[in-house]
Amino acid sequence: MANNIKQITKSDGSHLSIVGDTYRIVIPGKQTNGEFAIIDMLIPPGGGPGPHAHASFHESFYVVDGEVEFKTEQGKSIAQKGDTITIPKGGAIHSFKNVSNDLAHLLCTVVPAGLDDFFEEIGTPVQEGEFLPPPVMDENTVKKLISAAQKYGQEVYPPDYLDK
């Protein structure tokens, strides 16, 4: 079998609204035999996922533009343009939030893939550059999110879990 090099253009991939952020699955695990996935993340002011953990995959974020506040059980830090945050396998609890007034742009790589499948399941398809408001987190929505997260090896924690 030939190893074909592939170019992915800036608009290729599925665009999904996830908790008010817009993610583009640049390279899904389906194309890498599950070895890795790359997700392009646009995070509006105030956006970002709540505290969560995933023991079975390594996740790295490269800050393309803007800045985000990363929180872990060890504390918090501001990651700015050009910085990289890496979360090794093992289940460290973490979250991030755009605390600035400008759009933040992150490039996320997960090894192995799987997070992309989770996003495909919980996300709402959108057009490139389209943002939907965050969903109302009523009891039913939270139950569905927790169930989907568990299906993909993730644990979800209360929104204030990492506040100290």
TrEMBL record:
Organism: Pedobacter terrae
InterPro entries linked to this entry: Cupin_2, QDO-like, RmlC-like_jellyroll, RmlC_Cupin_sf
Species lineage: Bacteria, Pseudomonadati, Bacteroidota, Sphingobacteriia, Sphingobacteriales
Cross-referenced Pfam families: Cupin_2
Domain annotation Cupin type-2: ranges: 41-109
Alphabetical list of PANTHER family matching this protein: PUTATIVE (AFU_ORTHOLOGUE AFUA_8G07350)-RELATED (PTHR36440)
Record-given protein name: Cupin domain protein
Domain of life: Bacteria
